[in-house]
Amino acid sequence: MAENPIIRLEDIHKIYTLGLTQVHALRGITLTIERGEYVAIMGPSGSGKSTLMNIIGCLDVPTRGRYFLNGHDVSQLNDDELARIRNKEIGFVFQTFNLLPRTTALHNVELPLIYNGLPGSRRREKARQALEKVGLGDRMHHKPNELSGGQRQRVAIARALVNDPSIILADEPTGNLDSKTGEEIMEIFDHLHAQGNTIILVTHEDFIARHAHKIIHLRDGKIEDIEEMSQSVEEKR
Amino acid sequence: MFFWARVLEYLRFAWDALMANKIRAFLTTLGILIGVAAIIFIFTLIQGINKYVEGEFANLGSTTVYVSKFPWVITGNYFELRNRPPITIREYRALERYATYPRWMTPVFESMRTIEYRSKTLESVYVVGCNEQYTETHNTETELGRWFTASEVRSARPVCIIGQSVKEELFGKENPLGKRIKINGFPYKVIGVLEKKGSFFGFNMDNQTIIPYTTFRGYTFNRRSITIALKVENPDDLEPMKDEVRGILRRVRKLSPRESDNFAINQQDMLTDFYRKLTGTSFLVVIIIATISLVVGGIGIMNIMLVSVTERTREIGIRKAVGATRKQIMFHFITESLAISLVGGFLGVVIGILAAQVPLKYMHLESGVSVGTVLIGFFFAAAVGFISGLYPAYKAARLNPIDALRYE
Description:
The complex is a heterodimer of chains A (237) and B (408). Helices cover 35% and strands 28% of the residues of chain A. With 237 residues, chain A is α/β, with parallel strands linked by helices. Chain A has a single domain (7-236), classed as P-loop containing nucleotide triphosphate hydrolases (Rossmann fold, 3-Layer(aba) Sandwich). The longest helix of chain A has 16 residues, at 179-194. Chain A starts with 6 loop residues before the first strand and ends with a helix. Chain B has 2 domains: 2-56 and 272-406, no CATH class; 85-262, no CATH class. In chain B, strands 2-3-10-5-7-6 form a 6-stranded mixed beta barrel. A two-stranded antiparallel sheet of chain B has the order 8-9. In chain B, α2 packs antiparallel against α9 (268-311). The longest helix of chain B is centred in the C-terminal third of the chain and has 44 residues, at 268-311. The interface between A and B is medium-sized, with 28 and 23 residues.
């Protein structure tokens, strides 16, 4: 029996109503992402890539169409059900890091586990392991404002990893970093992929997208082209 | 166990948030602090006074009634009261003859008199004329010597029992027993010294002297109203005794059924009731003030929580993105609101109790701090915190994570 794809989108539409005008952000996206894939979503601004990311990340639901995550239909879930899915299945990495200020790196990484209801000691242990995985074992008790941009993004990646999600969803993860640090962050993603994680990158920068194995080009709310990379950056090295 | 671990987690969130805005949190909770402090202050104060007053009233004895011209708590027509005939020895004799319920009874003649011993003079001593049963009706004992006997009363022996202050003033360290003193010029022999009484509402109860009423000058034709104290042995006899006493007095005074009583049958609980009413009113006033303060405090908390929710929109977005449910966000902000108000409540309890010590000390009263008082303080604080946290928490819980994450 073939394993369920991790993500299956069937004819996804998203329509926003802004006052009297309707914005048709997504116009029928059909897409399958298999477990362990490394995918980049590209497109100019206004192409609908943020909307698509929000839907894949279960931050939003489609107006029409069906979304199967791990074989379960999540397209019509309510707020709290979506929150549970986000907690267990999805790890977010944002362009602006989105760490809680005033709390230590360790506590930031613990956050998804707190909402998962994991007891304190196991939680700290898991958070520590996640931080070590991104090479921040020695910065656990630092607050975000005591860390560099690259380190902050590593904390965010640790937070995304800590609950062993089905997918890691990174929205312009290098957008706020200089290119050298950005490269370092991308190496972490490559490494995570090599360990079997499913990674979806949203970016408008070609050289970032090149890290992925598959690039989905969006334009005007539709998939314009799916580019299969014969060889990713990671393998070229 | 699991639940408490989680509560602890939210408390930690709340504490971090408060610590990030210490001054703001303190100012916000000031209203709660004042409200709770006011409530605790008055509770502590009144409980302290209660303890004292109830102790004092207990001296009156709950199985004793006091027949006198006026009721202790005057509610009726003043002129009607003024025109009442005095209670005299005649009423006492009637009760002595006909009343069956009282186990002990005594007439009580009172006046302020001058007492002399050798060259020493004591002005305005409270002199009581009564019979030997006064010791039972008024729960009073001698510390030295003895009480006078029924036969001494009958034969009008000039004997007296002096209070502690009288003894100290007139005799110092000298033994007063057997000594002769003069009460308004008439000689009396000291046969006993009363036990220490202390004060009753500021009146020095030790500055008194007790003599057989038969030696009380002019007791048979005295027009000044006296008191008749009657005591039952069994508390169940109290009400029948009151009915009986009332019937006898009405008969003696030849009151027609249409006329109302022209005497009063007083009892300890009249005073306690009156006192309760009095403190009840001041209670009410303070509760109203405190409630206003708590409501204002609550509005303050709600306001600051709304500001906090807006300021932390992005944080809420992050929390939601990593999987916080609406309920969890709600819980988070309500805990925070509770934490603010409970800090105020705690400080209010402490300040209220401390502040109440000043007047209590001044009145020489014991403090009446009780667990109940403290719980009341915390209860009010928690209630206000919870109620004012509801709407901001609801608003936070309903935020759309996408918009919240984008919020600058």
